[in-house]
Automatic annotation (TrEMBL):
CDD domains named among the record's database cross-references: ENDO3c (cd00056)
Database matches in InterPro entries: DNA_glycosylase, HhH-GPD_domain, HhH_base_excis_C
Domain HhH-GPD: 36-191
Record's keyword terms, sorted: 4Fe-4S, Endonuclease, Hydrolase, Iron, Iron-sulfur, Metal-binding, Nuclease
GO terms for MF: endonuclease activity
Gene3D superfamilies given in the database record: Helix-hairpin-Helix base-excision DNA repair enzymes (C-terminal), Hypothetical protein, domain 2
Signal peptide extent: none
Chain segments annotated as transmembrane: none
The protein's name in its UniProt record: Endonuclease-3 related protein
């Protein structure tokens, strides 16, 4: 039986409603948040963002030393590493004169390659930036997506990009769709498809194989 990614999206969106992601006041805050959230929970990121908020513009943040920035984002964990990653990201962003509209005009594939060349920016971080800051339709592959689709009965490729392209090839290239798809998958993983799933009332129960073994 062919698996239908569109069906999954429709069911989740109908159940949870639009999530209006990413949770940030500005695209720059979104991008900094996407680095801070690496290997930690969002509550820790929120604490770090509050500390660093007076400096949440590229020109203000670039004036901070790496050490000063690290102390401000301490609650996000791995703060020394993340501080260096943010500085590397700022160096790249400065090549566009911190002009987000100029970045948006760049071809999606070229832009993705540029982001991946920045120290500490991996595929998932690059893709959330592409999607939520630079308005490029892309499917974000994260641990939640893998957990949910595995349990549903999908046999996803181990390769990040192969899985990403597999989804992108069969759903409309619509920015709003990809924006909400990632968001409702995250919400579903938090509400129903947890490490120990809550299957009662699950909007995907009727299409789920309920595989609960090696991927959990």
């Amino acid at each position: 039986m062919a698996r239908n990614y569109q069906l999954i999206y429709d069911k989740l969106l109908n159940y949870y409603g639009p999530q209006n992601w990413w949770p940030a006041d500005t695209p720059f805050e979104m991008m900094i948040g996407s680095i801070l959230v690496q290997n930690t929970g969002w509550r820790n990121v929120e604490k770090a963002l509050e500390k660093v908020r007076p400096f949440l513009s590229p020109k203000r943040m670039e004036k901070l030393t790496t050490e000063e920035l690290a102390q401000l984002i301490r609650s996000s964990g791995f703060f020394n590493i993340k501080s260096k990653r943010i500085k590397a990201f700022l160096e790249w962003y400065k090549s566009y004169n911190y002009d987000i509209d100029a970045v948006k005009k760049t071809d999606k594939h070229q832009l993705r390659n540029e982001l991946l060349s920045i120290n500490g920016i991996g595929r998932e971080t690059a893709d959330v930036m592409l999607l939520y800051a630079f308005d490029k339709p892309v499917f974000v592959v994260d641990a939640y997506a893998r957990r949910i689709f595995y349990r549903l009965g999908f046999d996803m490729p181990k390769s990040y990009d192969t899985f990403r392209k597999q989804v992108e090839e069969v759903v409309p290239q619509d920015l709003g769709l990809f924006n909400e798809f990632h968001a409702v998958l995250v919400e579903h993983a938090k509400v129903h498809c947890k490490s120990v799933p809550i299957c009662e009332g699950c909007p995907l129960f009727d299409v789920c194989d309920r595989r609960l073994d090696s991927n959990d």
